[in-house]
């Protein structure tokens, strides 16, 4: 009976030992993915910013500029791409809507971001764009991969339509979470004029005809939860200029926007709470369950060996048996 029990325990130990790496290295990469229909909204603000008044073409200091960023999962578009890509795909239709202190629109830039639901690597398909200009992204945008590593990544910059390294700058603590801090600096670069402008008559075509160009630089900072790959905070020190041409009235350049853009506090709190709940599910599959199974396997193996050893041990206090079976051992 003990031998049978020890074999059962040994089989369970082997099963648990085999299941642990399968759960971590096989099941997790296939089960963990971004939902195709996810919707996100983020509000950022730049206080005491410089903003160009397009009616006078003069920069002025304003109390606040608000940037509302939305990412809406397009399920129909993702299913269409999946049929040709042969993998799980997410299509995010994004919009960066910039609002001045008077509540009026400053600019509104749409984009479509298509990526692998499991790895967050870009997937190139028809419809990928920034402000209706076709693009071919390299690297990540908006979100890091699950189980983010301590290394540099390639990050896509929507203003320049190009990708560049975003550098890992160390581990920090943010609102009780251990996060990875990343930073990217985009040097002054000539960029397209937004197609939707705050003043009628000011269009990319009219700006081009005036010989005026738009330039941009930013220092981009992210605090990323390494388990989910989700940024829990983001900031930019952002500057834009219009340079040259007749539009500026003989001036060499004017500041179109300058400010330190930060996430609004209530959205930081909401993001941290959401990430905290989501990271528990990922830790369950990548750490808690696999290590729990390994520990259980070791315990079952030890118990099986103990039962086997006890089953082989001779009974204590036995008298022995003579060849004739009498069990007596006296002299003649």
Task: Explain what the structure shows.
The chain has 332 residues and is an alpha+beta fold. It folds into 2 domains: 2-22 and 285-312; 32-263. Helix content is 29%, strand content 38%. The protein is built from 4 helices and 12 strands, in the order αββαβββββββαβββα. It has helices spanning 2-31, 75-85, 204-209, 265-312, and strands spanning 39-53, 58-73, 89-99, 105-116, 129-130, 133-134, 153-157, 162-174, 177-191, 213-224, 231-243, 253-263. It has a 12-stranded antiparallel beta sheet. β3 and β4 (105-116) form a beta hairpin. The longest helix has 48 residues, at 265-312. The protein starts with a helix and ends in a 20-residue tail after the last helix. The model is unreliable at 318-323 and 327-332 (pLDDT under 50).
What attributes characterize this protein structure?
elongated; twelve-stranded antiparallel beta sheet; 12 strands
């Amino acid at each position: 009976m003990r031998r049978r029990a020890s074999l059962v325990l040994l089989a369970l130990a082997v099963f648990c030992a085999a299941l642990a790496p399968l759960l971590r290295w096989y099941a997790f990469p296939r089960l963990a993915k971004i939902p195709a229909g996810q919707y996100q909204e983020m509000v950022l603000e730049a206080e005491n910013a410089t903003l160009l008044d397009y009616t006078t073409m003069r920069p002025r200091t304003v109390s606040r500029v608000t940037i509302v960023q939305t990412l809406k999962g397009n399920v129909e578009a993702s299913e269409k791409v999946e049929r040709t890509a042969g993998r799980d795909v997410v299509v995010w239709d994004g919009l960066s809507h910039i609002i001045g202190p008077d509540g009026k629109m400053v600019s509104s830039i749409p984009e479509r971001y298509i990526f692998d639901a499991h790895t967050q690597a870009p997937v190139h398909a028809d419809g990928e764009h920034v402000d209706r200009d076709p693009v071919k992204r390299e690297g990540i945008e908006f979100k890091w991969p699950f189980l983010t590593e301590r290394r540099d990544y390639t990050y896509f910059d929507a203003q320049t339509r190009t990708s560049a390294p975003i550098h890992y700058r160390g581990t920090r603590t943010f609102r009780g979470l251990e996060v990875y801090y990343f930073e990217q600096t985009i040097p002054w670069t000539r960029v397209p004029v937004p197609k939707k402008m705050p003043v009628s008559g000011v269009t990319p075509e009219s700006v081009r005809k005036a010989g005026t160009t738009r330039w941009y630089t930013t220092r981009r900072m992210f605090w990323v939860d390494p388990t989910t790959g989700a940024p829990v905070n983001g900031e930019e020190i952002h500057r834009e200029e219009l340079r040259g041409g007749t539009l500026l009235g003989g001036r060499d350049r004017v500041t179109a926007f300058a400010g330190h853009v930060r996430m609004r506090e209530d959205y930081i709190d909401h993001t941290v709470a959401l990430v905290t709940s989501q990271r528990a599910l990922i830790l369950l599959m990548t750490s808690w369950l696999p290590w729990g199974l390994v520990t259980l396997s070791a315990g079952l193996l030890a118990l099986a060996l103990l039962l086997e050893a006890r089953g082989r041990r001779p009974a204590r206090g036995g008298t022995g048996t003579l060849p004739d079976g009498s069990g007596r051992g006296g002299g003649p």
